[in-house]
């Protein structure tokens, strides 16, 4: 079973870098058997990044009305994503669009989990808001646990 985690973001747009931060934190103590990747969120690169994966976890920033650091978790296995998932994207097509393109092309993994972390500042510059940085640590722990549970062999008992 191939498991992939993709952290999306732009290091030079403050809180937009939160997905990249989660990927880097996961690499410090990588989940066994999980590919951890970074992406700027360009649709074609995402389609290629999760190609061949049985399950993918995607972490991205959200430009939402929720307080900074709010974590939104969505499973997109068999239904369309809300349009505001990954709404901090600087690309014409956002994360929700890319997932639906992958689904339409038959190139979406069987299990898709998206963590969108609400940010405060998406202007030019580096560094995460403290609430967003705390959420990155929380999501890192959650993704580590979820991927470990997903990768565990089925019980033979």
Describe the structure.
- The chain is built from 4 helices and 5 strands.
- By secondary structure, it is α/β, with parallel strands linked by helices.
- It has a single domain (3-151), classed as HybD-like (Rossmann fold, 3-Layer(aba) Sandwich), CATH 3.40.50.
- It has a 5-stranded mixed β-sheet with strand order 2-1-3-5-4, sandwiched between helices.
- Strand 1 (3-8), helix 1 and strand 2 form a beta-alpha-beta unit.
- Helix 2 crosses helix 3.
- The longest helix is centred in the C-terminal third of the chain and has 22 residues, at 130-151.
- 43% of the residues are buried.
Key terms:
21% strand, alpha/beta, Peptidase M52, 157 residues, globular, 5 strands, 5-stranded mixed sheet, Pept_HybD-like_dom_sf, 4 helices
What secondary-structure arrangement, pairings included, does this model have?
Elements: E1 3-8, H1 18-28, E2 34-39, H2 43-49, E3 55-62, E4 71-75, H3 95-104, E5 111-118, H4 130-151
Parallel strand pairs: 1-2, 1-3, 3-5
Antiparallel strand pairs: 4-5
Helix pairs in contact: 1-4, 2-3
Can you tell me the residue ranges where pLDDT is under 50 for at least 5 consecutive residues? none
Task: Report the CATH architecture.
Answer: 3-Layer(aba) Sandwich
Kindly provide the name of the CATH class: Alpha Beta
* H/E element order: EHEHEEHEH
Q: If you consult CATH, what is the topology?
A: Rossmann fold
